[in-house]
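We close this part of the discussion by returning to an individual protein. Part of our work consisted of pairing the sequence of a single chain with a tokenised description of its backbone. No coordinates are needed to read the tokens, only the vocabulary itself. The amino acid sequence and the backbone structure tokens for this protein are reproduced below:
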Amino acid sequence: MELREIKDSEIGKVKELRDYAFRLPASGGEADFNYWAENARRLGLFYGEHLLAQVLTYPLSVSILGERFSMGGIAYVASYPEYRNGGLIRRLMEESLVKMREAGQLVSYLSPFSIPFYRKFGYEIFTEKVELTIPAHALPDMGTVPGRVMRFTSEDGTGISVVRELYNRFALTKKSGMMMRDDAWWLRLARRGYTKEIAVYCDMNGIATGYMLFGLDHEVFKIHEMIALDYEAEKGLWRFIGSHGMMVDRVVAKNIGSLRDIALAFPSPDFEKREILDFMVRIVDVEPFLEKYRFDRSDTTLYLQVEDETAPWNEGLFEIRGSFVKRIDKTEGGILTISIQGLSQMLMGFVRPRDLVYYGKATASDITIAAWEKVIPHVRSDFYDGF
């Protein structure tokens, strides 16, 4: 059995395994799948010329506390059923982490078919996605707004340029963990029909402060994504949705924020809500990640003991003071001992240090926990994309 990169000429074998394992067509069509398969790092386990198992890694980037981080997006992890439980995926995942480290991809994301399965490789949940189903008669009255909504489509270059700029501002300043979308990713969204209809809210001065990607599917108003830089824009977009109340029987919405956001935004949030623990993250290379991470209070010295069974280069004791990071052998200072899963969740903003200690995901004294609470910014993680 040979572990190696899958050649361009062998992408047909990747498709065959994809189709057999997932039983669903690629949602963006074959042209979209071909582009990403051609640009991915493709690792496979072969017996002769036969592909037994595969892992693809997309070259992507994300925003963490306003900084761009190179990210390896894991996709199409699969093996033929007769080779499952033979350790093939473990070998491929471990080699994928080595390759990501060599490529400078400091973090990795994936969408799990099984959360416990990917926890074994150091990944952990970092998003809480919410889907809403609102009957037309229950659409909220958000009051009046001074601005107006303008319509665009994916064929309108002006609309795409406006939403791109708004998305980047939102991703860099409002959330942690969001995709930094390039031309190829916007084209991917267009192939899936997400940008066919665009609504942009402009304030009374004509400045765009929010947008929505949506579509009408018979009597269903589908919100693919809503981004607002302020509450006025959010209200304005919901007023626009409400104007369709006589045309549709319900609104189905995703990528609009967390349950907490919904509780704060809606006068009466009494409609169906479904929470999904969706994407998982892991830090691929701890030391350079810590050097780039924007800690608060750069004058504070911290000590971190990292445990990582899958990527042993991450294990060890680190001294951190702002962007200054070094490995040390021992210290008399207070140490936060944490797994790579807990560290990834904490630094993304999904969970606070005190919560990790409470649930036994980390250990530290009360004084050490208090120090870490002060240096981890209070910015919540989210991710509106998928692969």
About this structure: The longest helix spans residues 157-173.
